[in-house]
Amino acid sequence: MNVETLKINKPFELESGEVLPEIEIAYTVFGNLNPKTSKVIWIVHALTANADPSEWWNGIVGEGKLFNPEEYCIISTNNLGSCYGTTGPSSINPKTNSNYGDTFPLITIRDLVKANQLLANHLEIEKIFLLTGGSMGGQVSLEWAIMNPEFIEYLVPIATNARHSAWGIAFNEAQRMAMKSNEYGLEAARAIALLSYRGYDTYEVSQTDNNDVVDNFKASSYQNYQGQKLSARFDKDSYHLLSKTMDSHNVGRGRGSLESALASIRAKTLVIGISSDILFPVKEQEYISSKVHAAQLKVINSNYGHDGFLIEYAQLTQIISDFIKSK
């Protein structure tokens, strides 16, 4: 899938009041786009993914799959602040002619929504048929459905919350502390994150040693491998920035309360949780579904914890397909 770029040559004001002189948004369009007639599926990625959901959600997106480009037009962006083509810390600051690096200003989930809406306007999309995303992508999806309630027909936030929890912020802060500690900081941060993405049972099943070793354990090798894998493909300043973006998530900020913000959602809503998720436990999805008018709640049974939304393709396909057909 070819990644395209929209360049916006005018100031982009952030929620904080700081201004980026210009921004670029990397995006993909999978299928034929007719702004007036296409059923647009808009997919928002999680923390370290990119604008190509057929790569990281390949059991969901593609020919013959749930989001089939012969039936839908699938659109996805690389989130603002990331390092896969959209303006972020690794981009050149036109004012200094050097990389932003750690000088990139704080961005919030609402800033990510604003960038997505600019692209939708550029593409002359009048309505999104279905908006979805998991984890941070779910946070963006919820916020977008509040910021522009008439724009979204179906909303499917997965493994996410209405306000980032103290537990989630603590995990993110531990990762940022690790990143400051040494040259392998991003690897250590990823190792910490994995503990929250999976959990005890997943490690017991997949990383327990079957012999009487006293060192060089499978779990140790796995943590190192995953840390090195992310470090080879992702920018540490983007990771630091976007983890703080997740921390900022609070749909009730400036709107009176979480309840009143969620009550403003007009999209037909299906909230999906994962039974073994310790980072975004099911009670957070229960809360969302209880406050959004006529929302449905479905829970995926999985041994993969939070990462279940990237793995449990069959369950997701069935649940989302049934939801669309029921309406």
Structural account:
It contains 11 helices and 12 strands. The model has no long low-confidence stretch (mean pLDDT 96). The two termini are 31 Å apart. It has helices at residues 53-56, 109-122, 136-147, 166-181, 185-197, 200-207, 218-231, 236-247, 258-263, 282-291, 313-326, and strands at 4-8, 12-13, 19-20, 23-30, 40-44, 73-77, 92-93, 98-99, 128-134, 152-158, 268-274, 296-300. The longest helix is centred in the middle third of the chain and has 16 residues, at 166-181. The radius of gyration is 19 Å and the shape is globular. α4 (166-181) packs antiparallel against α5 (185-197) and α4 packs antiparallel against α8. It is α/β, with parallel strands linked by helices and 327 residues long. The protein folds into 2 domains: 4-164 and 251-326, Alpha/Beta hydrolase fold, catalytic domain (Rossmann fold, 3-Layer(aba) Sandwich), CATH 3.40.50; 167-243, Rna Polymerase Sigma Factor, Chain: A (Orthogonal Bundle). Strands 1-4-6-5-9-10-11-12 form an 8-stranded mixed sheet, with helices on both faces. Strands 2-3 form a two-stranded antiparallel ribbon. 38% of the residues lie in helices and 17% in strands.
